[in-house]
Amino acid sequence: MSQPEAVLFDTPGPRARRRILVGSVVAAAVLVGVLVLVVLRLAERGQFDAELWNPLVNPADEQFPAVWSRIGDGLVVTLRAAFFAVLLSLVIGIVIASARLSLGRGARLPLVAVIELLRGLPVIVTILYVDVLTRTLGVNQGPEVSLVIGLTLYNCVIISEIVRAGVLALPKGQVEAGLAVGLTRGQVMRSIQIPQAVRAMLPALISQLVVILKDTALASIVLALIQDLGKIADQLRGFLDNPLQTYFVIGLIYIVINVLLEQVARYVQRRTSTGRRRRRRTDRVEEQSELQAPGARSA
Question: What residues have CB less than 8 Å from 195, skipping those under 6 apart?
Answer without folding.
Answer: none
